[in-house]
Structure prediction request, 216 residues.
Amino acid sequence: MTVLAIDGALGAFSAAVATNGSLRTSRSQPGNVALERGLSLVAEVLAEARVTPHAIDRIAIGCGPGGFTGLRIAIAYAKSLAQAWDRPLVPIDSFDLLESGHVLAAALTVVVGRPGVISARYRSGVSVRRASGWIAQVLDELSLPPGEAVLPVVGAPKDVLAALAERGVVIRSVDPKVVPAAAAAALLAASREPARSLHEVRADYGELPAAKLPKQ
Prediction:
């Protein structure tokens, strides 16, 4: 199975191609470049992997949470390509992309939105809790257990790690193992169920960007 994957949610625009569980190629460009460079990057990874659209079995897309602009544009690209090439589309959330390659019985995985705002998922056994908003608000809502067991924390910036330490949570900072994000999506997509229709695939922004009232 050959998968083309795209992600624009996690601080960069990335694209990757994987075949039968092995990564063939990936590219990533940081910043808000999805509109200017997104489709070019997709074309580059296809050329580098020597894969034509006819050889692609499915398309994977990072569906967020994450940055508003890159996420919205990446999903639009993925839906357009899936429709044009008549291929199934597989949405994968940012938390799974960040945890890809790790085996963690429990974890706090953090996606950064606008400054000071995060989306976080806390897993422990079969229990899963999620919250989005200001850092202090999110950590309060998740009610993380202090002391004793060491909690792996994936993808968290320094301000989140400091806030956890202030609450007495014993942590181990964990970097994403499979990068860029599109590479993780390409590898995960082969074992995931595609969406039943393109309309099912929606962006998860975590928290919408701050609104600005128009000047009167």
